[in-house]
Design goal:
Length: 257
């Protein structure tokens, strides 16, 4: 953010005011770099910045956020609510700051938030699974993100939270398809189908659950084909018999495409 503090989409008066305040903090204090980094990180959070959340983030970061939060409160960029939670003074300013975070800083902070939410989930049984999974996606950690998102979809479904189930499952499906993970695509479709059924969208549920079933069946066929061909390759059958087996297995696989 330092050196690029113009908050383009804000009204011109606010843009000038907040940009000047950020610039002043960045250059006038020995802690300026730390405070700027904290402001960037806070702008990336996907949940309310309550006292408990800020404490968990500080522990994940390895440094309390209290001083940085107080600094930005004094400048008026952060506002503290009666319950002790904080928020940005203007939602558009938060979005502008988040959009200017350098990629390496963004990845680091998304991992901080994922770690903080994992710590909170130990106390609150998966409440923040969706947000944690989305932070892991943004941190470019697809393997962990897929596991967390699918767990979140199941947890949300079991608690009757169909919107969160669908959001976690759709995101997981997109990620699994990008990484050619057919089994996880099937699981994501299964939870999407469950959410659709719970919401009364029967036709959508039938389509999604049928797609999930076919993908599960196809993967079972592929596993069986692989094991069969491996066993045959090590046996003493003739080349013609082996070629016939390959052709038969290929036919079985094609039936599920």
């Amino acid at each position: 953010l330092k050196g690029d503090h113009q908050l383009g989409s804000l009204p011109s008066g606010l843009r000038s005011l907040w940009s000047d305040r950020i610039e002043r903090v960045a250059s006038a204090d020995e802690n300026g770099a730390y405070w700027i980094d904290a402001l960037q990180g806070l702008s990336l959070s996907r949940i309310t910045l309550s006292k408990k959340v800020l404490k968990a983030a500080g522990r994940a970061l390895g440094e309390p956020l209290d001083e940085a939060v107080s600094a930005w409160e004094r400048e008026g960029l952060l506002i503290r609510a009666p319950d002790g939670s904080i928020r940005f003074c203007h939602s558009e300013m938060r979005r502008e700051i988040a959009s200017k975070v350098p990629p390496e800083v963004s990845s680091r902070w998304h991992m901080v938030w994922a770690a903080a939410l994992a710590r909170l989930d130990e106390e609150q049984s998966g409440r923040y699974g969706l947000e944690r999974g989305l932070h892991l996606v943004d941190a470019k950690e697809p393997e962990e993100a897929l596991s967390v998102l699918l767990d979140s979809a199941e947890h949300s479904y079991n608690w009757g939270q169909t919107h969160r189930t669908a959001k976690a499952a759709v995101t997981a499906e997109e990620l699994a398809r990008r990484h050619n993970d057919a089994i996880r695509v099937a699981w994501a479709l299964r939870w999407q189908g469950g959410a659709a059924l719970a919401a009364g969208r029967v036709d959508d549920a039938d389509r999604l659950l049928d797609s999930a079933r076919r993908m599960f069946d196809r993967e079972r066929v592929l596993v069986g084909v692989g094991a069969t061909l491996e066993a045959l390759a090590g046996s003493r059958i003739s080349r013609a018999a082996y070629d016939a087996a390959v052709e038969l297995c290929t036919y079985g696989v094609e039936a599920y495409r």
